[in-house]
Structures are given as C-alpha cells and as structure tokens.
Amino acid sequence: MLQVYIGYDPREAVAFHTLAHSIQRRSSIPVTIAPVMQSQLKGIYTRPRGSTESTEFSLTRFLVPALSGYRGWSLFMDCDMLCRADIAELAALADASEDKAVLVCQHDYVPRTARKFLDQVQTKYPRKNWSSVMLFNNARCRALTPEYVNGASGLELHRFAWTEDVAIGALPLEWNWLVGEYAHNPAAKIAHYTLGGPYFSEYRNCDYAEEWFEENRRLNFAASRVPA
Predict the structure, then answer these.
(1) What pLDDT was estimated at residue 182?
(2) Where does the pLDDT of residue 121 fall: very low under 50, low under 70, confident under 90, or very high at 90 and above?
(3) Given this model, what pLDDT does residue 99 score?
(4) pLDDT tens sequence across 48-64
(5) Which is it for strands 73-77 and 133-137: parallel, antiparallel or unpaired?
(6) Among candidates 31, 155, 182, 9, which has minimal Cα distance to 80?
(7) The whole model's pTM is what?
(8) What average pLDDT score do residues 201-226 get?
(9) What's the CA gap between 104 and 26, in Å, rounded?
(10) What DSSP designation does 182 have?
C-alpha cells in the first residue's frame, strides 16, 4: 500500500480530484490518497501564511512524515499534476533506496517567468521544485516534527536543510516534468503544470492540456453514473 498525499488549495480543487483519478486509474498496486488540507490540520499547523506562499500547501507538505506516523514510505505531490504512468514504478524505486530519507527529482533550472498562475510571484531559489514531488522514507524524516515545520523558514524546508545532502536520493526527471519549463516529452510520467494548470483559462493550451481535460472528463463521466 502506497500512501499518497496531495496538496490541496480551494482554488485548485478540480486539480486535486483529477490528479487523484489519474493515479488510481493507472495504479497496479493499492494506493491511499489523502489531501493535505489546512482546514484539517488545526492544532498541528499553526504558522500564519507568508507572502511567498503561493498555495495553502506550500509548507504543510512537510508534515507528511508526521501524518504518516514516521512509518513506511509516503509520496507527496503538488495538485497541479497529471499522472501518466503506473505509480507502482515509483514505489519500486523507494524499495531500492532504504538508505535515503527522501527521493526527489533534482531539477537544475531557473524559472523563465517572473509571475505564475493567478499572477503570483514566481519565487526563485536553489533546489526549486525539488519539493513538488517527494517520496518520504518516513522513519528517516523524524526531524520534520510539527514544531520544526511551524518554526523553520520556508527556504530551510524547501532546500532540505532538515536532512543531509547524502540522504537526498534522485528520481528521474520524468517523474516531475515541468510543463512550460521543459520541452514536451512523450515519456513524461508526471506532468507538472508548474506555471498554471489547464483549468486556468490562460494555460488551457499548454502541453499535456488535452490529456488533463480527458482525465477530468473520465472523472466526471464516472461520477455521473453513480446511482442517486
């Protein structure tokens, strides 16, 4: 059983449900999917929202090991994604990396734009987007206590100051393919609409947009067939 946590922001609720559907539809292993939702973290997450936090889950993502009881492996994903492959392939990479605290796609790029979806500032910092897909080896992430997550700076969290560099394992970039930053890749396993998803009108023609709309159509078709 792979535990999957997806960042949830009310402005992108449709993205959460479509991503969850894309994971479940392709998975060959049992998967549990839960939203990382601030309204469900009262008493655990207490810090006010900072000016550079573009979503409600900008920092709550780092609570995943604590929410998992520091047991097993857990996958965190931003909601603005589409899973195009069997998530079992990612779980297999975890099985071969027991000595790592976390596995991420280690991007080496500088964002091309100064703004992103909903005209928000595109913050630039080292290890940008490493934290948008994180496969946590929860027992090795005990430094990520709620107290630490509530008190550490955003840069400390997103730049992985809470673990040693040697404990950060690398995933193939196909597992977090940055739409609009990287060229279209037919082999991308997770398309990440990092600049803005096709559910926003200004990005409705981006790469992989047609696949997202098809996934959303499948989700809505399935829902429409549930008996009242």
Answers:
(1) 95
(2) low
(3) 96
(4) 887 778 799 999 999 99
(5) antiparallel
(6) 9
(7) 0.90
(8) 89
(9) 21
(10) B
- Tell me the angle at which helices 209-224 and 13-26 cross, rounded to the nearest 10 degrees: 80
Instruction: Report the candidate in 166, 218, 204 with the shortest Cα–Cα distance to residue 18.
Output: 218
pLDDT on residue 114? 53
Q: Which residue has the higher pLDDT, 117 or 209?
A: 209
Q: Are the C-beta atoms of residues 32 and 2 closer than 8 Å to each other?
A: yes
**Average of pLDDT values for 113-121?**
53
Give the confidence band of 126 by pLDDT, cuts at 50, 70, 90. Answer: confident
The residues, ordered by sequence, that sit 6+ positions from 100 with a Cβ below 8 Å of its Cβ are: 137, 140, 167, 168, 169
Helix (H) or strand (E) holding 217: helix 209-224
> Cα Rg for the chain, rounded, in angstroms?
17
DSSP secondary-structure letter at 50? P
DSSP annotation string for 123-179: ---TTTTGGGEEEEEGGG-TT--HHHHHHS-HHHHHTTTTS-GGGEEEE-GGGGEEB
Q: Which long-range contacts (CB under 8 A, 24 or more apart) does 12-17 make?
A: 12/55, 12/79, 12/80, 12/197, 12/199, 14/199, 14/216, 15/79, 15/80, 15/81, 15/197, 15/199, 16/79, 17/219
How far is the CA of 168 from the CAs of 35, 104, 130, 163, 171, in angstroms?
A: 24, 7, 10, 8, 10
Nearest CA among 216, 207, 217 for reference residue 186: 207
